[in-house]
Amino acid sequence: MRVTIQQVKDIIKEADLSSVDPETLLKDVSLSKQGVDSLEKTTIFFLIEEKYAIKISDSLYQELDTIEAIMEYLNKNLPQDK
């Protein structure tokens, strides 16, 4: 399974952020710098964990601060279709 930028954005939409419009988020700029607060990021990671049945260590939350970084992490850590 390959995760795309759009799939990550779709999950962010599900998080129902009050601070930003997910469609305006840039893939390579820090979510924090784009106005996503820490509680919203936690919600995003919770939804990702739920959708993909994966556990993301809390210590990675700071590192995974762009849509692109989240996508790359998922593509490295999810089982790949054969």
Short descriptors:
82 residues, Non-ribosomal Peptide Synthetase Peptidyl Carrier Protein, Chain A, mainly alpha
Give the helix level as a range of percent.
Answer: 40-55%
Q: Categorize the overall geometry.
A: globular
Order of helices and strands: HHH
How would you classify the helix and strand content by structural class?
Answer: mainly alpha
CATH class reads Mainly Alpha
InterPro entries: ACP-like_sf (IPR036736), PP-bd_ACP (IPR009081)
Protein name: Acyl carrier protein
Pfam families: PP-binding
Organism: Rhodocytophaga rosea
Overview of the structural elements:
The chain has 82 residues and is an all-alpha fold. The protein has a single domain (5-77), classed as ACP-like (Non-ribosomal Peptide Synthetase Peptidyl Carrier Protein, Chain A), CATH 1.10.1200.10. The chain has 3 helices and no strands. It has helices spanning 5-14, 38-52, 67-77. The longest helix has 15 residues, at 38-52. The mean pLDDT is 92.
Overview in brief:
The protein has 82 residues and is mainly alpha-helical. Helices cover 44% and strands 0% of the residues.
Describe how the helices and strands are arranged:
Blueprint: H1 5-14, H2 38-52, H3 67-77
